[in-house]
Design a protein that fits this description.
About 75% of the residues lie in helices and about 0% in strands. The protein contains 14 helices and no strands. The protein has helices at about 5-20, 30-50, 60-85, 90-100, 105-115, 120-145, 155-160, 165-175, 185-195, 195-205, 215-240, 245-255, 260-270, 275-300. The longest helix has 28 residues, at about 275-300. The mean pLDDT is about 85.
Length: about 300
């Protein structure tokens, strides 16, 4: 990882934690920052990097990887939950936080910092065609089933997908956005995209929570091990199977190694599904990922 990017991540995490404890910013500061990232920075990143994609059948492999890892999550957690006699709420949170990674808010800036800008378009494919649609389908179903609500109808799922701002940016980028836009447009989009890393890390630092009860330590350990180690380990042979190589393979594995999605944990908390465990999986996952993500970059480069 570039030293300057690593220092910026640590500095913004520290500032966020400091602002949270000193109450320098309003209580909803993290929500506001995340909204800015969602409606401004993420679409700018999509418009900047997606037009550089050269359509290749291998991109289908990148889009399919998070779906296959979701199936792997089910195959591992269902028998494990029965063996350990996990509560329904705990099982639901593990499903959400292992199957859904933070492939956009943290994924984009981390892929860029660790692999360079050439790998970022592949991260966008992984996120938009994989993780985001999974959140809007599998994620909503898990929330509904384990919180006692009615499972979402197809219309509700489609409306949720249609209202996602980066999706409209993706459609525009794939159809109308030139690879080399006018300089003033390209420069503005690049500046907005670059703002994603400090804003996300500030929001994460502001909202990070690490406290947990003893009875939740085992599920926490299981969730972190699966998300940060097992899922990216499975992504390596999947990438080989799909014929990925170079930056495509590296981005595919690194996105699979991202910590749990903040949005998925927030939804679990709002549905009263093991809220402390959901918050801890995100908090500890982000902290540990500062070490595990560079480690995975080293591993995949050693594998060639």
């Amino acid at each position: 990882m570039a030293v300057d990017a690593f220092c910026l991540i640590l500095a913004m995490l520290g500032l966020g934690m400091l602002f949270s404890r000193t109450r320098t910013l309003p209580d909803n500061a993290a929500e506001v920052l995340n909204a800015v990232v969602l409606y401004v920075c993420l679409p700018a990143a999509v418009l900047t990097y997606v037009p550089r994609l050269h359509l290749d059948v291998s991109l289908l492999g990148i889009a399919a990887t998070p779906w296959l890892l979701m199936l792997a999550t089910l195959a591992i957690l269902v028998p494990l939950a029965r063996w350990l006699r996990l509560e329904r709420q705990t099982f639901a949170v593990l499903l959400l936080c292992v199957a859904l990674g933070n492939s956009s808010f943290i994924g984009y800036p981390m892929v860029r910092a660790l692999l360079g800008e050439d790998a970022l378009p592949y991260a966008v494919v992984y996120d938009q065609f994989g993780t985001f649609i999974l959140l809007s389908t599998f994620g909503l179903y898990v929330l509904a089933r384990y919180s006692g609500q009615t499972p979402p109808a197809t219309k509700q799922i489609l409306l949720r997908v249609a209202k996602f701002p980066p999706l409209w940016a993706l459609l525009f980028a794939l159809t109308l956005m030139p690879e080399q836009p006018p300089h003033w447009i390209g420069s503005a989009l690049k500046s907005l995209s670059d703002a994603m890393l400090p804003l996300v890390m500030l929001a994460v630092g502001f909202s990070i929570r690490l406290r947990l009860g003893r009875d939740e330590l085992a599920p926490l350990g299981i969730g972190l091990l699966l998300k940060l180690a097992v899922m990216p380990a499975l992504a390596v042979p999947l990438s080989w199977l799909f014929g990925l190589h170079g930056a495509m393979l590296q981005a595919n594995v690194l996105e699979s190694a991202m910590p749990s999605m903040i949005t998925a944990a927030a939804l679990a908390i709002s549905h009263k599904l093991a809220p402390r465990l959901a918050a801890a999986l995100v908090g500890y996952g982000i902290v540990l990922s500062l070490a595990t993500l560079p480690a995975w970059v080293w591993v995949i480069r050693q594998l060639g």
